[in-house]
Each structure stands twice: as structure tokens, then as C-alpha cells.
Amino acid sequence: MGIGKKRGxxxxxxxxxxxxxxxxxxxxxxxxxxxxxxTVNETLPTAQLAPAASASPGTPAxxxxxxxxxxxxxxxxxxxxxGLISHEHTTTGTAKLIRLPDGSRTLRLENLDTSxxxxxxxxxxxxxxxxxxxxxxxxxxxxxxxxGKLKGNKGDQNYEIPADVNLSDYTSVTIxxxxxxxxxxxxxxxxx
Length: 192
What we know:
With about 190 residues, this protein is α+β, with helices and mostly antiparallel strands.
């Protein structure tokens, strides 16, 4: 009867660490995300310029003064763009740097289609975009700025670019998996 107790204790001693390792592996890799899609369809933000001060309606302008004509609002301006290429996971879509009428800037991902994954981020970087496995890990080697977590792995989405970011320092965008330090996909941002 002593042999049966030893086998039970040995089995339990092996089973508990195996279950713990399985749990940690599932948490770390989150494989279920490969079968979960999150679609985001944001419209391009519309930033409004402050209205020009004017006299109340029906009040004539004082004699000898000119009425200021409010500046014409221009629409959003595309500063740069590029097509996303695949790295660790198949990735398609377009990345655009857009200046809004109020001067703020946005990175817009259009028709994005990539895999879901753990801890995905959107980064502006100074790294060159390389095809294949040579391009998977280059984006954290130089200068980069995180614009936040990827909102969804499919669709159209916008990421505000902080005002202190000098866009001339950044030439590409990547969908970066921070957990595994690898690019899911990236685009070279050609000036327009």
C-alpha cells in the first residue's frame, strides 16, 4: 500500500506544476486571440477652428474699420501615407498621416486587416520597412513613439499624434507586439 501512496504523491507533484505552466503559457501567448476579431470603424476626426469674433447680427461695423473675413476652413491634409506589408502575421491596409484643420495630427489606419494578438501597439518609428523576417524586429532598435494600443485588428481607426512629435523624425509605422517584440506589419510613410 505504500507504493500506491508514493505514486499518487508523485503524480500530484507533477500534475500541479504542469497545470501551472499550462496556465502561464495560455496567459502569455493568448492563443484564442488568433480566432477573435475586433472591427473598429472610426470616421476621420473633424477638428473645428474657433469661430472668428464678429459684431452681433444687424450691427454695422464702425466707420473706417474693415470687417475681418474669417479664414476659409480647409479640409484634412494628408502629409504622408503608405501601404502596410506583412511581417509576423499577414497584414494589409493603408497608413496615413493627416493634419486636421485645427493643426492637430492623426495617424489613420484604413482597411486594416491583421491578426489579433497580445499587447499590440501602434508605433511611429524611424526604422526602414523591410520585407520578410528581416523586418520583424527592427522597429525598437531606433527612435519610436507609441500612439497607444491597437483598437482593433480590422477596420478604420485613428490615433492622435502628440503635438510635440516632430514628424520629420519618423518614416514608418508598425503594428508592434510589445509582448514578443515583433512587428505584425508595417508601412513606409511616403511624403505626399
